[in-house]
Write a structure and sequence with these properties.
Layout (H helix, E strand, L loop, with lengths): L7 H9 L3 H9 L5 H6 L2 H5 L6 H21 L10
Helix pairs in contact: 1-2
């Protein structure tokens, strides 16, 4: 896959091991980046229709872990993370 043309849904699925349904819920709520997912106020995630609290916490944690891993490595190697 050409990552330059990767949609936000594809990014979420590849990096966070997220299913397509949840990725669509997030983009429908105008959350398009890993940074937004990791740092938007938790209440904003909890307000996403169809997203459970446990899903919000899980994917927020995975987004934090992925971003931290990228900072530590200094680049995007495309690997997903388990949180």
């Amino acid at each position: 896959m050409d990552r330059a043309n990767e949609s936000p849904e594809e990014l979420f699925q590849r990096t966070l091991q997220m299913d397509a349904r949840i990725a669509r819920l997030l983009t429908g709520a105008e959350i398009f980046t890993l940074e937004e997912l990791a740092y938007v106020p938790m209440q904003e995630l909890l307000d996403v229709p169809g997203l459970t609290e446990s899903e919000a916490r899980l994917y927020r944690k995975r987004a934090h872990a992925y971003l931290l891993k990228q900072v530590m490595r200094g680049h995007d190697d495309g690997d997903s993370v388990d949180a």
